[in-house]
Each structure stands twice: as C-alpha cells, then as structure tokens.
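Hi V.,

Quick status before I head out on leave. The structure for the redesign project is tokenized and pasted below; the design run finished overnight.
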C-alpha cells in the first residue's frame, strides 16, 4: 500500500531542480533579450537606410520642379526607372492622385495603411508589386507649384533581411541550448561533487553509532560542528547502552541463585504438602522469573556481541516440529489446536540453537495469547531458493498501531493479561536473535489474524 503522505524530496534533487529551473529561467530571459536586441539592430538598419533614401528624394523634390526632379532622380538612381524589383517609389498629391511612380511600381501599390503624420516618418510592412515582402517608409513633402503636402513612399525588399534574421535566430537558439546543456551537466557534476562529502559523512555517522567516533578533522569545515555533536551524542548513547546491559546482566546473575533456591523450596513444599493453589501460583511465578532472567542474559550476550551465530546445515522441518512439541503443553492447557503445514524435509544454513529459540518464542507467544479454544497455524515454505516460516493466530484485540511496539521489552497489550506466565521478553528476544542471524522478522494483521513472518533463509540442497 502506498503511503498517503507525500515524501520530502532529497537534498540532491532539490538542488538539481532549483539549479535547472533557475538556469532555464536565466537562459530564457537571455534568449529573449538577445533576440529582441538583434532584431532591433537588424531591422533598425533597414529603417535607417529607407529613411536616408526618402530624405534625399524629398530634398530633391522640394528643391526642383516635379518633372525636372523626376528626371534627375532617374538619372541619379536608375533602379527606380524600372526592370528591377529591389527598390520602389511612389508620390501622391494632397488629393490622393499619383504624381510619380517608379518603373518597378507600375501598379502603384505602395499606399500606406494609415494616415501619414506631418512631422515624423511612417514605417509599414507590405507585399510589393512583385509579390515579395517589403518594408516601406512614407513622409510628407512640399512640391513646388502645388498646394498641400504630397506623400512620398519608398519601399525595399526585406526577404534578405528576414533570412538573415532567421539565421541569427537559429544560431542564437542553438547557442542557448548548447549553453543550457553544458550548464545542466556542470550543475549535476557540481551537486554530486558537493554532496559527496555529505554522503560519506552519513556513512561514517552510521558506522560510528556503534564503533569509534567520527574523525572531525578530516571533514569539510561545514560538517565539523555536526560531527562533534554526533560524537557527543553517540558517546552518551554507547555509555547508556553499556550501563543498561551491564545492569541487566548483573541483576540476572545475582537473581539466578536466589530464584533457584526459591523454586527448590516450592517444589519440596509441594511434595510434602497437599496440592495448594498458592504453591502452584508460586511455582508459576518462579518459572516466569526464570524465563525473564534467561531472556535478559541472552539479550545482553547477543546485543553486546559476546555470542555469535554458528552456522551449520539444519533441517527446518524437524526443528519446527520440536518447537511445536515444546509449546504443546501450553496449547493443551488453553485448548489451542496447533496445525503444521510443512514439507517432510527443508534444509537451510543457520545456527540451529538460535533459530529454534526464535521459533520457540514465537510459538509460545502464539499459544499463550490466542483466544482459548482457537488454533495456531504454522506454515513452512521451502520452494525455489528461499525458505519462509509463517506463524499465525487469531488476535481480535490487536490494532495496527500495536505492531510497532512488538519487540519492546516488557510490553504487553494488557499488562494484567497472563502476567503470571509471561515476562514480556519473548518477542524482544526473538527480534534480537533474528537480527543476529541476519533474518527478517515482520508482524502484520490480516483479517483479525496476527502473522509472524520469518524470512531471509536460503534453501540448502543436501544430497540423500
């Protein structure tokens, strides 16, 4: 099941997203600025050339009679006479009648779309008489011998300028994309290289939690205060764990002899006297205390590393059957039926004593905590390369939140329930022993049943 809570992003992903987004915005802004500036420069030069040409023609028209000015214009600029299609010219009087047109503009198609202002040139785009796209300028001029202002329009093809602008645009886009790609690669390498000391520090901190202190002098300056703080915290935790384990071990050792004496005295009293509920209760209490002390000693030895697993081939089917026989007395007392579903043989490589103790604790816990008159199911799967053990029993009182506390020392769902027979260390010991064996011990609720799942064992092929 997927979690409904949104997981936070990693620092590396946050930095990469921030850098990529920032670089993308910067590159986009740079592209827009450069593109706009280049377009303004390219088309500004075209407009300046048209303006200079229109001004020269206007000065000529205003200083000469119309026909004489036209003849002189055709002599000075033969491109307006006709036959070409690069330059175009047209002149209107105040009434809108065409007074003068170039040979390249015989159809007189340079009319501006809007009114031409009196004191400023008017630029506009149009389709030229030859069908090409062009750029034109319209200005007001004063002709000799005529009343009112005439309008002079000078046009030029812009397709070459448009082609140049497209080439510049493609080159600009390619340069920006290449620069962005290089920036992304450099950002990725910079983030990875910058976080490498932090990742190494995380690994060293994980190892230093149970071993030596972190070497703060070899770390970057930014991580040294954190390393010193972690060293102090790890040192305090190690000292606290050592005190707790030493205390549990010492208490357990000190209590074993008095408890053995108490148990012997109770058994002698039972032999010499008639059956008494008080003596039976005292004997149950001593057995419970014995299991509690044995559990404390085992937890202390395995958690401190004083005792390690000894691996050898084990027939898991036979081991589970022996554990069922051990739990049979507790199950019969509570009228609990225990069913085993397992193959005749199932071999694996593990420590037989530790694994039997894990299964013993799980079976005893299931037999003692399942409702009276119910059943306990034990399923052993030995297929392929993996071996799995599942132990299930009805658990109507448990809730999903209780599973998080499984494995805590001395925890019970109901402290008063079965207090005379349980010390609260069975699941904690099973969890610790499973970790020593490198196995996974998980608990889950399914339809009112509690399932303990032991995984991580590998199947071992043993010749007949």
């Amino acid at each position: 099941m997927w979690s409904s809570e949104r997981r936070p992003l990693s620092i590396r992903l946050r930095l990469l997203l921030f850098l990529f987004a920032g670089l993308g915005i910067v590159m986009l802004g740079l592209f827009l600025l450069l593109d706009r500036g280049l377009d303004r420069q390219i088309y500004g030069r075209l407009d300046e050339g048209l303006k200079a040409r229109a001004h020269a023609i206007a000065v000529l028209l205003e200083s000469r009679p119309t026909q004489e000015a036209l003849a002189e214009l055709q002599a000075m600029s033969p491109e307006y006479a006709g036959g070409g299609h690069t330059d175009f010219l047209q002149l209107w009087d105040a009434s809108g009648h065409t007074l003068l047109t170039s040979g390249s503009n015989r159809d007189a198609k340079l009319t501006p779309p809007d009114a031409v202002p009196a004191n400023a040139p008017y630029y506009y785009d149009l389709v030229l008489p030859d069908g090409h796209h062009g750029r034109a300028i319209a200005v007001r001029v004063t002709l000799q011998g005529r009343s009112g202002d005439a309008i002079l329009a000078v046009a030029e093809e812009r397709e070459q300028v448009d082609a140049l602008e497209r080439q510049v645009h493609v080159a600009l886009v390619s340069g920006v994309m290449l620069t962005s790609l290089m920036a992304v690669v450099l950002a990725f390498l910079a983030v990875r290289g910058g976080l490498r000391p932090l990742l190494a520090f995380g690994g060293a901190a994980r190892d230093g939690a149970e071993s030596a202190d972190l070497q703060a002098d070899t770390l970057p300056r930014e991580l040294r205060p954190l390393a010193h703080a972690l060293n102090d915290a790890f040192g305090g935790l190690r000292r606290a764990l050592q005190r707790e384990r030493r205390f549990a071990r010492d208490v357990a050792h000190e209590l074993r002899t008095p408890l053995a004496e108490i148990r012997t005295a109770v058994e002698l009293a039972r032999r010499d006297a008639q059956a008494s509920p008080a003596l039976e209760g005292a004997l149950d209490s001593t057995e419970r205390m014995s299991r509690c002390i044995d559990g404390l000693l085992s937890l202390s030895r395995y958690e401190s590393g004083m005792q390690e697993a000894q691996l050898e081939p084990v027939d898991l089917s036979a081991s589970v059957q022996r554990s069922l026989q051990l739990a049979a007395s507790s199950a019969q007392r509570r009228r609990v039926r225990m069913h085993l579903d397992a193959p005749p043989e199932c071999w694996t490589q593990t420590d037989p004593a530790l694994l039997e103790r894990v299964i013993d604790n799980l079976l005893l816990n299931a037999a003692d905590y399942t409702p009276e008159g119910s059943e306990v199911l034990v399923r052993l799967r030995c297929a392929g390369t993996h071996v799995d053990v599942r132990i299930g029993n009805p658990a109507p009182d448990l809730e999903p939140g209780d599973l998080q506390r499984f494995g805590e020392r001395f925890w019970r769902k109901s402290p008063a329930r079965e207090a005379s027979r349980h010390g609260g260390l069975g699941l904690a010991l099973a969890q610790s022993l499973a970790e020593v064996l490198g196995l996974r011990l998980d608990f889950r609720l399914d339809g009112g049943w509690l399932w303990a799942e032991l995984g991580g064992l590998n199947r071992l092929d043993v010749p007949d």
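Above is the designed sequence. The helical segments are 11-63, 66-76, 159-208, 224-272, 277-303, 316-333, 352-369, 426-436.

G. will cover questions while I'm gone.

Best,
W.
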